[in-house]
Amino acid sequence: MFEQILETVKNKTPLVHNITNYVTVNDVANIVLACGGSPIMADDAKEVEEITRICSSLVINIGTLNERTVESMILAGKTANELGLPVILDPVGAGASSLRTKTVFRLLEDITFSVIRGNMSEIKTVYEGSGNTKGVDAAPDDAVVEGNLEEAIAFAKRVSQQTGATIAITGAIDIVANQDEACIVRNGHPMMAKITGSGCMLSSVIGAYCGANPNHIFTSTIAAVSAMGLCGEQAYKKVVETNGGTSSFRMFLIDYMSKLDNVLLKGGMKIEDR
Amino acid sequence: MFEQILETVKNKTPLVHNITNYVTVNDVANIVLACGGSPIMADDAKEVEEITRICSSLVINIGTLNERTVESMILAGKTANELGLPVILDPVGAGASSLRTKTVFRLLEDITFSVIRGNMSEIKTVYEGSGNTKGVDAAPDDAVVEGNLEEAIAFAKRVSQQTGATIAITGAIDIVANQDEACIVRNGHPMMAKITGSGCMLSSVIGAYCGANPNHIFTSTIAAVSAMGLCGEQAYKKVVETNGGTSSFRMFLIDYMSKLDNVLLKGGMKIEDR
Amino acid sequence: MFEQILETVKNKTPLVHNITNYVTVNDVANIVLACGGSPIMADDAKEVEEITRICSSLVINIGTLNERTVESMILAGKTANELGLPVILDPVGAGASSLRTKTVFRLLEDITFSVIRGNMSEIKTVYEGSGNTKGVDAAPDDAVVEGNLEEAIAFAKRVSQQTGATIAITGAIDIVANQDEACIVRNGHPMMAKITGSGCMLSSVIGAYCGANPNHIFTSTIAAVSAMGLCGEQAYKKVVETNGGTSSFRMFLIDYMSKLDNVLLKGGMKIEDR
After folding, report:
1. What's the structural domain count of chain C?
2. Per-residue pLDDT of chain C (274 residues; tens, 9 = 90+)
3. How far does B23 lie from chain A, in Å, by closest CA?
4. Distance between C104 CA and the closest CA of chain B, angstroms
5. Residue B230 is part of a domain; what is its CATH number?
6. Predicted confidence (pLDDT) per residue in B44-60, tens digit
7. What ipTM was assigned to the predicted interfaces of this complex?
8. Distance (Å) from the C-alpha of residue C255 to the closest C-alpha of chain B?
9. Burial of A261 by CB count in 10 Å (0-12 exposed, 13-18 middle, 19+ buried)?
10. Which residue in C111, C53, C29, C202 sits closest to A64, CA to CA?
């Protein structure tokens, strides 16, 4: 199945509309190209609907949101929903300011998302804004470790139930969950947290994978999470070999995404059904 | 002649005012520095005229246009025209949304451009907006190949006639044309299409070359197109040597621009008069 | 002392709020991570105060200022002042347009800065805007060389006296000065001027160092200036080894910041009290 997901991305070259932040936008565009997609960045309210219409998916990332772009996100999201295109949400920093939290709540109200990817803190905020009346008491601690893994998976399923989206909670151990099914991904390397954009890049790779495989959102999300982690592992090895640092790591990460094939992916995926 | 073009860029260190998109802006700034120029990015309406006045050329790139920056483009463009400075247009995505198409039409109406660089689809849109009454029927297909090369060259000359600008249509084979003369450039590598910013970077290198050589717009444009392609060829070789991917390619591309000299350029240029 | 500065950055992982330009923002975020801090970029007026409140320091960089973000700078700066957090100013291009100059004057009036870092031209503009009634006649020429070094140090002290900030004037020779004390730093490499963002990155590294060591602003600034220069020296060596260019240099610069430890810093610092 995962082989087909990758194959389809490369055959279809899905156009991915990204309304994203200006910090990591270049890396996002380059990794979408590297994974076989084609990125379009457009955030003016006057054109976002038209741009979404020619695309295969939409990725909304609130990393450097401002009033102007929030309106564009809503317009593009509604258009994608009308057309039945996958819409991915990356709620960067949700919970860190009331603007971010309110924006996430508004996006959740106005747009149906196919996938929501964030760290545990961000997904907790998503949970609060998705009709949950119990607060976040039920949520596990922000770092997902072996000890709270079961709890975290159950939480991810609840967020999926409330939002209707596939939920990807990424960290030392990654969780991908639907209402009824979940799996964990043990790919990745701690150095991914030492560069900016690992999360943003992953969200847009999910956008490319889902854009090419709109009927396989859950599987595509798992494939993207695992692929990204695997590239991180490979990149770290090359950093050691070349006596590099975090900036070399960033380059090698995108390099490996551009070289990823089924052989590498199949040999390296560390996925467990839960 | 090409030797002098390069020499002059390095001797004059032309200041290049870029009103450009936030996706590739960092690469653009770095390649302008690498080729011997000095980049200034400024897009607030309150300062663009003043900034243009201290510069040697202006590059307008509509990659992530919005209402605020379009006004700045017009103001800066008019100032550059008053001063007789070279103005380069990169109509990114023209044709993809009516905002982009309308913006290009407005820019063409208000500003006289020295050089317009885009892919065939973008240049077709430029043609529509430049007083052409025949639609785009006369234009060749979007991919320039041996079979439609003559047609594409003739088209580029017509666009030049209508706009008064040197036209650079880049792709697998690059065309640079004036009203009466044209040449094709066979430098470059397909991996240039696998990173974001190859086109944006080239447009600003053209800005630097023309800024230093304002009386040799046509020759400077050819030199820049060939130089960029040559750096792409060299970069690809190094990607293979280092077992890299697309992100390494991007770095090597800028590296080679920073190391480009007359010996390398002269030995590698693949230019044919047509 | 310098050892403790570095140690504290790594132990505290200071959150650094950056309101900065979109040209170099990615490099800034990555070098803050590389040096042991954690960057947050947020520029909407509705959230900047809240974001500053959760941070250890604030860096204001006017590289691509616009009306919207200037208001955010003021709001964030006042909040940081209330909380007693270090605020760093990078007056990019001050003097190049009246918008930039006026913005710097306004920032100096409304906000108390802990550190102001710029090149000589920018710091001269700061001097004009900080209550100086003598114009810039007393300032040395814009390039700091052995011949005008004493004059430049005396000037830096005067700017410090007028602004209350530690002044860092960077160039071929770097000067760090307080009202009463000064030192020069002879680390660095000319290739730092051949990439965009060397200055922006340094300002935010100062932000991280001061954020972790708010009671040692002067020493932290010296440590950051020297560390950055040292990474430039190391990066250049690796460029030569790998037959690279300016883009490789940029990567190695951030790489070395991510690998910098007390041993390397202690062995390489070139600091002279003056």
Report:
1. 1
2. 889 999 999 999 999 999 999 999 999 999 999 999 999 999 999 999 999 999 999 999 999 998 889 999 999 999 999 999 999 999 999 999 999 999 999 999 999 999 999 999 999 999 988 766 555 556 777 888 888 999 999 999 999 999 999 999 999 999 999 999 999 999 999 999 999 999 999 999 999 999 999 999 999 999 999 999 999 999 999 999 999 999 999 999 999 999 999 888 889 999 999 8
3. 5
4. 14
5. 3.40.1190.20
6. 999 999 999 999 999 99
7. 0.95
8. 14
9. exposed
10. C29
For C154, the token pair is 């005396």
Interfacial C residues in 99-118 facing B (CB < 8 Å): 99-100
- Reported as a single tens digit per residue, the pLDDT across C230-263 is 999 999 999 999 999 999 999 999 999 999 998 8
The residue in chain B having the minimum alpha-carbon distance to the alpha carbon of residue C62 is: B42
C257 inside 8 A of chain B by CB: no
- State whether A41 and B23 contact (CB < 8 Å): yes
The alpha-carbon gap from A197 to the nearest alpha carbon of chain C, in Å, equals 9
Number of A/B CB contacts below 8 angstroms equals 80
Residue A4 to residue A266: CA distance in whole angstroms: 12
Say if B46 is an interface residue toward chain C (CB within 8 Å): yes
Q: How many of the other CB atoms lie within 10 Å of CB of B12? A: 16
Which of B29, B50, B254 is opposite residue C23, by nearest beta carbon?
B29
Residue B65 identity: L
- Structural domain containing residue A18: 2-273
User: Does residue C122 belong to the interface with chain B, where contact is any CB pair within 8 Å?
Assistant: no
Sign of CA dihedral A214, A218, A219, A225: positive
Contact: C250, A248; criterion CB under 8 Å: no
Residue C3's alpha-carbon distances to C6, C174, C209, in angstroms, are 5, 20, 12
Q: Indicate the residue of A41, A252, A257 with minimum beta-carbon distance to B64.
A: A41
| CA–CA distance, C257 with A246 (Å, rounded to integer) | 9
**Looking at residue A199, what is its pLDDT?**
97
**Any B CB within 8 A of A183 CB:** no
Three-class SS state of A58: strand
pLDDT at site B132: 61
Q: How many helices (H) and strands (E) does chain B have?
A: 11, 9
